[in-house]
Amino acid sequence: MNRLWWLVLLVACTAAPPEIPQDPVSQPPVLDRYEGSLGPGPLNLSITLFQSDLPNPSVERMKLVPAELRYLSFLLRQQLSASGYWGAVRVTPNDDVTAEVVCRGRLLDAVPERLEILMRCSDVSGRLWLEEIFQETVPLSAYSVAASVHDPYLDLMTRIANRLAKLRLDLTLEDRQQLAKLALLRYGETLSPQHFSAYLGENKEGFKVLRRLPAEEDPLLQRVLRIRATEHQLIDALDEQCEVIFEAMKAPYHWWRGYQFEFDQYNESLGQKQDATNGKIARDYRTLLATYRRYQDYRRNQDELAEMSQSLAREITPTLTQVEGQVVELTGSLTGQYELWRSYLQQIYDAEGSPNQP
Amino acid sequence: MKSISRFINQQVDTRLTHRLKALLLGIILGVADSRADDPAEPAMPSLEPYLGHWEVDFSATESANEKLRFLYDVTLSEHKRRLANSQNGLGDTPFQAANDLQGLVNLGRLADQITRTAVLNIQLMDGILVAARDDNFSLRCAIGGAQTTVQSVGISQCHVQAKALVFSMAMPGGLRIEHRLILSKQQDRLSIATTLAADGVSQSFSVSRVFQPFEPGDPGFACRYTLGKGRVCQLNGTPDE
């Protein structure tokens, strides 16, 4: 009987082998979508254009980096918007002074098979939400024709969006409303520090807090609200223009990275089988021509990206916008237009005069 | 060997006439300038004379087909000599010779394909010399910066050798292409000598095209790239900077 027990135990153990835990990273993440209504206090999130910390990029590559940074910033924006957890999600050339949450990304590595971004997100109080390196490695098949609909690094952006969604869910309605008020007054402070800084203070941890609130009918607050609304319109207008370049970049950037990846692998395999392949390529004209054509396609995509990159730095379409009933035209680069706009706002605010005390 | 000869004859376009004069001028342009300088002391030539619009000067440009025919004959003779020697255990086998000639023909065909540029626009943009070709990707050279780029896609390199700007590319499988840009002494002609080489082929294949400067006429329209609308062209507009 005792032996039978042992036998049953042994069969039970062998019949159900322990399950190997699946690596969670290997599973494509599913974008966490907010199904309900955001209700009062939706938080606006702005992504400051990613910065580059690429190790030793070539001079040629440096010409493409601005376009790549813009593209990747927009890819993240796309996922954050689609998640539905946020109010407006925008990409801005500098830190957005109107947003409740600002995310900055630093590109640590960007080769076709690997992307590494250091993300740092904080809210208007200065509280750090997230400081984490996100990394993703993709196979060559991610650049196939069938896969060209989705960016190979969409999953990485999904993981960032999901992390932020979780952090956003930790906030109570009161927290969100506090952040919204803080963002408004902090914005007012940038226009009129002497008036609005009295409403703001710092707690012992060094985070910005509300000391008190202005009256709702405070004319200066009303003006700040109007000016902020026009600033939002401008950011939306610039954002819309940049989205056009994001769409235009999708195909050439995809193929450029794909070809680069293919050549990487090909070169590697050639290194392993050098003796076997040497001297063969020139014997077959079709192989020879195909090798050249691939390289040619790669370089043409590089040309196209370089042209886009130069265009981004040079000038974007002049933006016509309205502020306080006046039509203003902004010209120059994206950053230039934004800075010009901020100076207009300051001038308008100063021209109307403001009391020194709240 | 006869079958290879027939193959070559099919490949080479017999309609083209001899342009020996052109060939000689191309060689003179290339060789004379390169001999005048000491290759041991490479110095960055003044890039100013390279800049601008260049169009092909057909009267001074080599034909890839004729060059191939000439080189084929030379290589064939060489192989015949070697094959004769092989009866004594020296030289190579007929199989090796056939492969070599086939490789040479293929390089010549590819050279014909990739040297059809008719118009060049050479500009200096943010420290990078960009030679935009009307039918192909731009040749780029970072001035004073990293000279070797895009390592992952084989090697793309540019350097100065005896006052020539040399763009070299190495592709997977051992295909190597070099474009050598040389200005004539009067700076009124620009020669681009393109050389193709591949592992397993005894001869490299070179062809020279000569360009002359020209002022592009007003096309009647101007284009610029904008973020909002992409490439926008206007009739009688101001040319894009």
Category from helices, strands and their pairing of chain A: alpha/beta
Spatial sequence of strands, sheet with the most strands of chain B: 4-3-2-1-10-9-8-7-6-5
CATH architecture group name of the largest domain in chain A: 3-Layer(aba) Sandwich
Largest sheet of chain A: 5 strands, mixed
Order of H and E elements of chain A: HEHEEEEHHHEEHHHEEH
Sequence stretches where pLDDT stays below 50 over 5 or more residues of chain A: 7-24, 273-277
Order of helices and strands of chain B: HHEHHEEEEEEEEEEE
Q: Number of domains in the coordinates of chain A?
A: 2
- Tell me the name of the CATH homologous superfamily of chain B: Calycin beta-barrel core domain
What's the number of helices of chain B?
A: 4
Tell me the radius of gyration of chain B.
21 Å
Strand proportion of chain B: 25-35%
The overall pLDDT of chain A, averaged over residues, is: 79
Biggest interface, which chains?
Answer: A-B, 48 and 44 residues
Describe the largest sheet of chain B: 10 strands, antiparallel
What does this 3D model show about the protein?
The complex is a heterodimer of chains A (358) and B (241). In chain A, helix 2 (59-83) crosses helix 3. Helix content of chain A is 52%, strand content 16%. In chain A, the strands form three sheets. Chain A has a five-stranded mixed sheet with strand order 2-1-3-4-5, with helices on one face. Chain A has a two-stranded antiparallel ribbon with strand order 6-7. Chain A folds into two domains: 33-222, 3-Layer(aba) Sandwich (Rossmann fold), CATH 3.40.50; 223-273 and 280-352, no CATH class. With 358 residues, chain A is of the alpha/beta class. Residues 7-24 and 273-277 of chain A have low confidence and may be disordered. Chain A contains nine helices and nine strands. The radius of gyration of chain A is 26 Å and the shape is elongated. With 241 residues, chain B is an alpha+beta fold. Chain B has a single domain, classed as Beta Barrel (Lipocalin). In chain B, 29% of the residues lie in helices and 34% in strands. Chain B is built from four helices and twelve strands. In chain B, the strands form two sheets. Chain B has a ten-stranded antiparallel sheet. In chain B, strands 11-12 form a two-stranded antiparallel ribbon. In chain B, strand 2 (119-125) and strand 3 form a beta hairpin. In chain B, helix 3 (64-86) runs antiparallel to helix 4 (94-114). Mean pLDDT of chain B is 73; it is low at 1-42. The interface between A and B is large, with 48 and 44 residues.
